[in-house]
Amino acid sequence: TTSDDKIYKATEKEGTIDDSKWSEDLKNYHGFIWREAGHGNCVLTAIDKAQKELKKNSDIKVPILLIHSDKSFIAKEENEDAQIADIVLNIKDMLSIKLCNENLMNTEKIKDAKHDVFLSRNKSREMAFKTMFGWLKSK
């Protein structure tokens, strides 16, 4: 279950995140507007189906780095907490899916990151980049 798509979009507004500028034109919201499009919960159904398939039959054979927030919740309104947590995916559910052999899977949580980890506030974003580049260097 996810937060309301309007709350999610509000946390990703075009403009400035701390000292970093970015454009909403570069952010694809098309996968997150199923309610506005009148398609019911087809996106959620597709995600649920894919997650179930991955849980029972995943054989990815390449290294995976899963960078995620240290917390998640369902946001009922736009507020400060929605800026420092994953309001789209449930972290526990995400971590329960074994995508590949555990030797190939690296998971790293980033304190106070939001769903789009690399659009988090400076400290979290810097830690995410440091984690990613360190992981890439080790491969």
Quick summary:
This protein is of the alpha+beta class.
Can you offer a commentary on this structure?
The chain has helices spanning 5-11, 34-37, 42-56, 91-96, 122-138; strands at 15-17, 20-22, 64-69, 105-110. The protein has a two-stranded antiparallel ribbon with strand order 1-2. It has a two-stranded parallel sheet with strand order 3-4. By secondary structure, the protein is of the alpha+beta class. The protein is built from 5 helices and 4 strands; from the N terminus they run H-E-E-H-H-E-H-E-H. Mean pLDDT is 76; it is low at 31-39.
Q: Cα-atom Rg, whole angstroms?
A: 16 Å
- CA-to-CA gap between the ends? 34 Å
Q: Which structural class should the secondary elements be placed in?
A: alpha+beta
Strand tally is: 4
User: How many helices in DSSP terms?
Assistant: 5
Q: Ranges with pLDDT <50 over ≥5 residues?
A: 31-39
Order of helices and strands: HEEHHEHEH
- Gross morphology is flat
Largest sheet: 2 strands, antiparallel
**Within the largest sheet, what's the order of strands?**
1-2
Average pLDDT works out at 76
Give the helix level as a range of percent.
Answer: 25-40%
Q: Work out the oligomeric state of the chains in this entry.
A: single chain
Query: Strand share of the residues?
Result: 5-15%
